[in-house]
## 1
Amino acid sequence: MKRTFTVVIERDPESGWLIGEVVELPGCYTQAPDVQSLEVNVREAINAYLKTRDPLEPTPEFVGTWRIEVAA
């Protein structure tokens, strides 16, 4: 069975590396210097998370994202 996950990618301002967080799997994140490496690392992180999680624990459902502008 295949599942689809949502990954939010941010750039760390200090190292310049990309950080990928899997929205539906709390605490599941990884980092890499480029997008190609990040994809490999995210897939590994997802597989490790799924192998070690409690199968009875519900997973959040991704709903969407917002970009909101506010005065700084």
Note: The helical segments are 35-52.
## 2
Amino acid sequence: MKISVIGTGYVGLVTGTCFAETGVNVHCVDIDVQKIENLKKGILPIYEPGLNAMVEKNVEKKRLHFTTDINESIINADAAFISVGTPPDEDGSADLKYVLAVARSIGKTLDHYMVVVTKSTVPVGTAEKVRHALQDELDKRGVNIKFDVASNPEFLKEGDAINDFMKPDRIVIGTDTEQATEVMRKLYKPFLLNNHPIYFMDIPSAELTKYAANAMLATRISFMNEIARLCEKVGADVNSVRRGIGSDTRIGNKFLYAGTGYGGSCFPKDVKALIRTGNDNGVPMSVIQAVEDVNDAQKSILVDKLIVHFKGNLKGKTIALWGLAFKPNTDDMREAPALVIIEKLLGAGAKVKAYDPVSMEETKRRIGNVITYSKDLYDAADGADAILLVTEWNEFRVLNFSVLSKIVKEKIIFDGRNIYEPKEVMENGFVYYGIGRRV
């Protein structure tokens, strides 16, 4: 089979590479000439463990190709996956201009039956808009070429995307014709053979499934962050509460960790889009709106604790930030709590020294040199009045307190991900602040 994957961002590049790994002939398309040239040289635009090697392997096997020519990519293709960005518009809705532009581009040259698949996260009804945009172009050309649309939302976790694609919890596919179903079934046949669950459904249900899944996960995070705030007031420990409720099989223990709030490319954008979709259809998303409100407040919680500790005066204080990316194993800074923390610290007159194993260049691209970038966690902590653990990278988990004690100005750790044992930290002479922890 041959497919076109249009858009070589996070979703498109992972999708195209993993399909190539199953033996599909994949042509990845992007309008960014420099990005395509870099990909041909093996230079990837994102950091994702294992992806570089898989790209190199499939390019060498001539199963994975990169081009700026969408027309070339759809020649004899069985399916075209639209994997371009859907950034939030000013009103919170998903901006579909890039998705529809791709649909129109396909319609201008399509000369055979093909399934056009929305892989980007898009609101309910987008497949129909894609269908109309593509059909309009065919009508302008005066040709009658059959095509189908489908929805195939992605469920990829940054930092573990290859496993998520190759060993999925589920594959969701929305179609409305038997022919489209058979094309998608053939494409995903390797996953059927490995007994990974594939759910075929109507297109609107597939489109909504993605938003509902992300909104549920975001809800669990905000729920635990709110419980953590209550724990601090009543003297409970959120880790104990988490274990207590997570042992209930109806609840489970995933996404029940208190912290500094969620970020990244998916949860914030998808929560906003679902709220907007509800409002547009006369169904206020009250629970989801509360999830967003809690998360917005949670991103400031470490700075709030810091201000209380220093009695409202952070001017001239040097604060060490351990971690910048919104989560470990990625360089993604989109909606990262660290950006809010940095803004508030600088606004309060503090100086910031930061270290992240991967995302410092991306941070510098976004905010420049308004903070100091350090060579490691101890360099960041040198001379610090307080340490803020923001991202739970593995290298932050075991600390050399004998070294740390000699270089910090004040022995204070604000554990934004609850990865340290309060007792151990305090036994080494440090003041400990966690999120909803009993100390």
Note: The chain has three domains: 2-201, 211-297, 299-433.
